[in-house]
Amino acid sequence: MLPVYLLEDDNVQRENYSDFIHNSIMINDADMELKLVTGTTDELFDSLDKQTKGLFFLDMEIADNKTAGLEAAEQIKKLIPLAQIVFITTHDELTLITLERRIAPLDYIIKNKGMDAIKKSINNDIALTQHYFENFAHHSRNLFNYKIGSRFFSVLMDDVIMLFTEKAAPGQVTLITKNQRGSFMGSLNSLETQYPDLFRCDRSYLVNLDNARTYDSKSRVLTFIDDSFCKVSFRKSRELMNSLETKIK
């Protein structure tokens, strides 16, 4: 479920916008939840967990700070890679700054256009965000995503051959694909949960059986289309043969 946040320091406007968001979520049958309605940036950031996505409706001016919402958006983008930002403000002159700071908001709602226009814009933003994340979920199932430092990378799941760890490099995962090899910090346990289509051969290997070529059940050696191979634990051997037989059918 996608968390939605509202930052607005005017009590009346905050209540109105909250109602608009609730109604829009129901109208669009969106898989969303209005997680927080607040008038302060401190409470907003205190509520953020380790999620990677969210929809944020931000008032640009909070208290006497004309760019508080803008500053909050910059921080949100750093913390939450897939955050969608919608500014609700009277300051249309600040639109250029959002471009200069590379915030790339989903929408920029001007308050003085009236409540009906704001309500319509919020509803459109809810619908658009729902559509975006439905498409993202569909495509992300076909991608393997990983992070090196502050940079995010994606490769086609069809190209993934295996991931493995070595005792000499604890906490590091090596990725082998059809055309590249790389390493990043992570754990096979979390990757196994995140990518259930990959098969856990033993404690050290997580593999894509779609790219397996042969399996010798006597030696328990699984070979892949690039001639790489890995050992399969005795406990996993029967499960592997069942999986391969299922794929052949």
Give an overview in words.
This protein is an alpha/beta fold and 249 residues long. It folds into two domains: 2-140, Response regulator (Rossmann fold, 3-Layer(aba) Sandwich), CATH 3.40.50.2300; 144-248, Beta Barrel (OB fold (Dihydrolipoamide Acetyltransferase, E2P)), CATH 2.40.50. It is 36% helix and 32% strand. It has seven helices and 15 strands. It has helices spanning 11-27, 41-47, 68-79, 95-100, 115-140, 188-194, 234-248, and strands spanning 2-7, 32-38, 53-59, 82-89, 107-110, 143-148, 151-156, 160-164, 172-177, 181-185, 199-202, 205-207, 212-216, 221-224, 229-231. A five-stranded parallel sheet has the order 2-1-3-4-5, with helices on both faces. It has a five-stranded antiparallel sheet with strand order 10-9-8-12-11. A three-stranded antiparallel sheet has the order 13-14-15, with no helix packed on it. Helix 4 (95-100) links the parallel strand 4 and strand 5. It starts with a strand and ends with a helix. The model has no long low-confidence stretch (mean pLDDT 88).
